[in-house]
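Box 3.1 A note on notation
Throughout this textbook, protein chains are presented in two layers. The first layer is the amino acid sequence; the second is a token string describing backbone geometry. Keep the layers aligned when reading.
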Amino acid sequence: MGSERLDTAVVDAGPIIHLGKVDSLSLLAIFDRLVIPEAVVEEVSAGGSPEGLNALEYDVVEGNKEEEYSGLDRGEAAALSVFGNGQRCGLPHGRLGGS
């Protein structure tokens, strides 16, 4: 994968936390659009937002609260519901990140 960009990524807390630990959040900039469910933002913020997250531009969306995914935490379930519903990805709930 050279310098090509990819369309849209819906991100769970795991990649944000772990990429932040190795100072590599900038790798997420390969995507034209980064979507983070509100539940994931809350989960990541609870542990202190990783350095570099504010440098990224991303849309915050609300996941489907009615869908349940057995064995998954709230952030994972929200990411799956957003990913599974492409129309929801097109409707940002809010905006955080870079200017």
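The mean pLDDT is 77. The longest strand covers residues 31-37.
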